[in-house]
What does this fold into?
Amino acid sequence: MEKVLHHNNWGLDTNPKGELTVGNFSTVDLAKEYGTPLHVLNELRLEETARKFRENIRTVYAGKTSVHYAFKCNSIPAVIRILRSAGLKAEVMSEFELDLALHMGYEGEEIIVNGPCKTDSFLHKCLDKEVRLIIVDSLDELQGLNQICVAEGRDADILLRINPDYIPKGMNSGSATGSRKGCAFGLDLKGGEVSICVNLLKEMKHIHFHGFHFHIGTGIRDPRDYSRALRCLAQLCSIARTAGLAIRIVDIGGGFASMTTRELTNGELLFYQGFERLPSGVKHDKYPTFEDFAREISNTILHYFPMDELPELLYEPGRCIVSPNQFLLLTVHRVKERPGVRKWLITDGGLGTVTLPTFYEYHEVLLCNDAFRPRTEKVTIIGPVCFASDIVYRNKLMPRIYPEEVLAVMDSGAYFTSMESSFGFPRPAIVSVNRSSHYLIRRAEHFKDMICRDFFSNQISEEVHHEICGH
Ligand SMILES: Cc1ncc(COP(=O)(O)O)c(C=O)c1O
It folds into this structure.
């Protein structure tokens, strides 16, 4: 039998009508007032999660620590504002994210820059804005950055991103960013690319090396995965030492799981996408805390560095901070049944528009208007797009559901809003909730937003275009 987490796991409650509530507000009322699809952000819980993460990292390590929130995970400005006030710095991977970080008030020295495709113009901008660290992803990028610095007499502070060729047990191939064969990220440790870069660095007078970075994937539930990946530090330390370089910073990336969702394994993905067998949900009642992760990582670092040479530890969490603190409301508009074949719940959001991560992750789906109705039938929950794969979940065990009832996809804080699309439908609004109020932090897209990048002067006069788009 499928195991369903209790709504308390997300800090939700119920009212006397049996409706799910967040803060003091009924999710059904929120859906009515703002319309669906609608993301709901639990702002107090988000702030608390971020502070706790930072606190736990700090208390278990004798050296310096910094937490750089991975903007890619959820770049809603109101979310970033909360995380910034909780003391998290920024990790960005594109010019857009860099602009956003600066716009949100971050100083260059609080920003680190990742990503495999840093163009020359992006690197220029990073130097102009004096970002704290550029995390170099390839030999080619290192040489390109050096050329810019030499030509313009500028300096850059860098880490080298390493591909440790380590895949946490059970992680699907799409998430395994530390795999040598499976993805292009980072310098190939086994192939000797790291040694080549380190040797080049000796001659690069404008490039200042501070240490190493890796990011081994997402949805990691076992703290020991970090120590296993950190084993490559022994080799890195000796490469750096031989070249006369000190390791002052070790950046262990992000990847910490949200304990209320989970990534599907390769096998589960195969069975689910190929044979429609949806695996069961989150299995563990007991799961590692931030402190467990932090302690394991700190102890492993202590193993490789003497106390008086402890490097600064950088963390780049995304998912574990934001995921459990936002969810997505969908309305079931139609119910369709082909007896003996299948029953569909037709909602206003699926992976074609707003739930892309449900393709490869397990998320719980709750009934908002009757939280305790028993789960009695398997249904396929789909979205509104004319696209056979516009599905939330196939064969999901749910209560009997009727048109106009409201579902909550738990949780939607990580990578949902980042990856949503306007495939035939406007992108949804986001509302933020605290104990005493709720308010829009992003309005839904309008027709105008969906069309104002287009030039269609053959069909329409300039005045009409101006009237629709305002430019
Ligand atoms: C370099 C880097 N750091 C941090 C993260 C954040 O990962 P997560 O959301 O799993 O914590 C990512 C995600 O892709 C990443 O690529």
User: Anything to note?
Assistant: The first helix runs from residue 27 to 34.
